[in-house]
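Q: My labmate handed me this sequence with no annotations at all. I'd like to see what the chain might look like in three dimensions before we decide whether it's worth expressing. Could you predict it?
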Amino acid sequence: MKKDIIDTLNKNNGVMKSRQLEDYGFSRTYISNAVDNGLIVREDRGIYVTKDVLEDEMYMFQLKNSKAIFCNNSSLYLWNLTEKTPDKYDVAVPINYNPHRIKNIVNIYRVKDEIYELGIIEKKTPIGMSVKTYDLEKTLCDIINNKDCMDLETRNKSIREIFQRDDFDIDKMYQYAKTMKIYDKVSNYVEVLL
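A: Here is what I predict for the chain of 194 residues:
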């Protein structure tokens, strides 16, 4: 049975929540004993990993804070549109979410539910784990709308690079801009820049 919990974790990239382990039939006592015996590691409250799992900060952060969606600089990083690793993650959370446990370690953008849910996708981190971020079109709208999230040179360079990508959909971007009520802002910015 000892190997079973390690195999189960390994099938899930070496990381699972206690709830997930329980769904596989492991009791809380068994999980606790596995930690005490050094089979697995308790990474954080309710999160367990194998001893040899590669530490993926972005994945672990989102596992602990499932409502936090990577946005702005962090989204650009996940899309390989910046070489700069973010010092602090930029995350969007629903307006009614209380980010008390995370507010000192990230830049938080509280947004209305309809904007928060717009364009959420999964991208791989550099280590290869899936995390939630925004698609290119929503990311572009966000970085135009949140002018203080990065310097002007980085913003302009990123926008130009997004427009050059084959997987960018300008119509979708304008649709998002209308939903976000920033159509004129986005349209004017794009006209001046391009």
